[in-house]
From TrEMBL:
Domain DUF559: residue ranges: 1-51
Source organism: Sphingomonas carotinifaciens
Pfam short name (any one): DUF559
Name recorded for this polypeptide: DUF559 domain-containing protein
Length: 66
């Protein structure tokens, strides 16, 4: 499960931890990513996500597609 945490994450951290524990018990992993990283470093975020799945992320080149 991928969760994008925004500015209010500090306010919801206890509930997030509880939900993550419940999901982990069900066999899911939670990958948390900061909203600012999605906005400012999308390629880095995609590479981070890909690494968790054992996939090599290929950055888009100018004028091309990944």
């Amino acid at each position: 499960m991928i969760e994008v945490d925004g500015d209010t994450h500090g306010l919801t951290a206890p509930a997030d931890a509880s939900r993550a524990a419940l999901m982990a018990h069900a066999g899911y992993r939670t990958l948390r990513i900061a909203n600012g990283d999605v906005t400012n470093n999308l390629d880095g975020v995609l590479a981070h996500i890909a690494s968790h799945f054992g996939v090599r992320h290929m950055a888009k080149e100018k004028g091309g597609t990944a």
